[in-house]
Write a structure and sequence with these properties.
This protein is α+β, with helices and mostly antiparallel strands and 388 residues long. It is built from nine helices and 18 strands. Helices cover 21% and strands 27% of the residues. Bound molecules: S-adenosylmethionine. The site of S-adenosylmethionine has 20 residues, from α4.
Length: 388
């Protein structure tokens, strides 16, 4: 069998949000500044591991999207290549990043067991050089041998992302033992070198540590085969990130055609079209998580697809399965604001709009290419608190 890999003939690809859809990504408030972050990550050298950069970028995006709280930590900083990324995104997300290293390379104490024959690598760095590269904002540098330096971390620390990159069995195991209980549900632990076959201690520490945990390892195709786990969360405990995104700010209009209401508009809607969104099919539904304890009215800026010839349409509205309203749309009274009283204490509120008939545009306008069975158009939503 040939063990030599012939020249790799394929070009790499990067996630579409950072390439063809980058403009859309930024319009939706995307966190990552691709070129600047890549330059900071590369430093003076060309980027060796683009998948690693992309993988970390996606983690920052997901932490933001899911609202995962907690600080960042890196154990194994060396010259600060990955620390730079963690720090840039800690600033964007208003977190602290804790950066732990000897800043003098491997410590002899860790040259035991599987790592007994290891060289004293990574000495060509210093705390001052890394501090200059990473910057001070939102970054805390802890110099010394881990786990002895763990006492310098905040006793009540909680982490959204822990990046362990110390190569050797002992510090990886100590890092997992220290940080795992402090990573919040949904948070990330990334261990570099897990699958590289270069650092046997990394694979051993991760396999042993997670053997009896709820989480399993996912192997990432960056050059060192990083391992990632996400801390498990107990089902039904507390609001999920999805519910957090369904919590519309009271007394503010939310535009369905522009804002990212994809988690609120749960099913039966066409793509947002700038002005708003069309409900299609037999039922269009949305789910919101109202703030507790308030009497709330949901104002819906709506209209219905009315075929030519003076036709009117009826749309039945239910809240959490109970009939809530029957809305009649006529040529004289079509577009405008209609109100729904939300049952007190109902959380979440799932609101379904069911047209008694849906009209396929093409059936009434044969020249149209629009084949959608249109029901109700939704432009804006506002949760109005009593007295507002
Ligand atoms: C591979 S380098 C880190 C590379 C860095 N994350 C990057 O991507 O550029 C490994 C680092 O782990 C640090 N390290 C290893 N064992 C350690 C220990 N027990 N305590 C503190 N730092 C340690 C070394 O000093 C070295 O800087």
């Amino acid at each position: 069998m040939n063990s030599e890999l012939k020249q790799w003939p394929y070009d790499g690809a990067i996630p579409q949000r950072f390439s063809t859809n980058y403009r859309r990504y930024k319009e939706r408030g995307g966190l990552v500044e691709l070129a600047e972050d890549a330059e900071a990550y590369a430093g003076a050298r060309p980027i060796e591991d683009v998948p690693r950069l992309m993988f970390l970028n996606l983690i920052f995006d997901q932490i933001r999207k899911e609202g995962i709280c907690g600080d960042f930590a890196e154990l194994g900083v060396y010259q600060g290549q990955t620390a730079v990324l963690l720090a840039r995104n800690a600033r964007r997300l208003d977190r602290t990043v804790w950066l732990l290293d000897t800043y003098e390379g491997f410590d002899d104490k860790d040259f035991t067991g599987i790592d007994v024959a290891t060289d004293k690598l990574f000495r060509d760095t210093s705390l001052e050089a890394v501090r200059r590269r990473v910057g001070e904002g939102h970054a805390r540098f802890i110099q010394g041998y881990f786990p002895e330096t763990a006492v310098q971390l905040p006793g009540d620390g909680q982490y959204a992302l822990v990046h362990i990159d110390t190569d050797l069995y002992a510090p990886i195991m100590s890092g997992l033992e220290y940080f795992y209980p402090r990573v919040i549900p949904g948070g990330y632990i990334v261990v570099h070198d897990y699958g590289s076959l270069a650092w046997a201690g990394a694979e051993k520490a991760v396999d042993e540590f997670f053997a009896d945990k709820a989480e399993c390892v996912i192997h990432i195709p960056d050059s060192a085969g990083s391992a990632v786990i996400r801390k498990a969360r107990a089902p039904g405990q507390g609001p999920t990130w999805l519910a957090a995104r369904q919590a519309l700010a009271p007394n503010e209009w939310h535009l369905t055609g522009q804002a990212d209401l994809g988690t609120v508009l749960t099913r039966g809607w066409s793509s947002p079209e700038g002005w708003g969104v069309w409900g299609v099919d037999a039922e269009h539904a949305l789910t919101i998580a109202p703030p507790p304890g308030e009497a709330l009215t949901l104002e819906c800026d709506v209209g219905a697809f009315l075929p030519p010839g003076g036709t009117s349409r009826i749309i039945e509205v239910s809240i959490n399965g109970d009939p809530a309203a029957i809305w009649r749309f006529t040529p004289e009274q079509n577009n405008g604001i209609r109100e729904l009283q939300l049952p007190p204490g109902a959380n979440p509120c799932s609101i379904a709009f069911r047209p008694r008939e849906a009209g396929r545009v093409r059936d009434f306008y044969p020249e149209s290419k629009d084949d959608r069975p249109l029901g109700m158009a939704l432009r804006r939503l506002r949760l109005r608190a009593a007295g507002a």
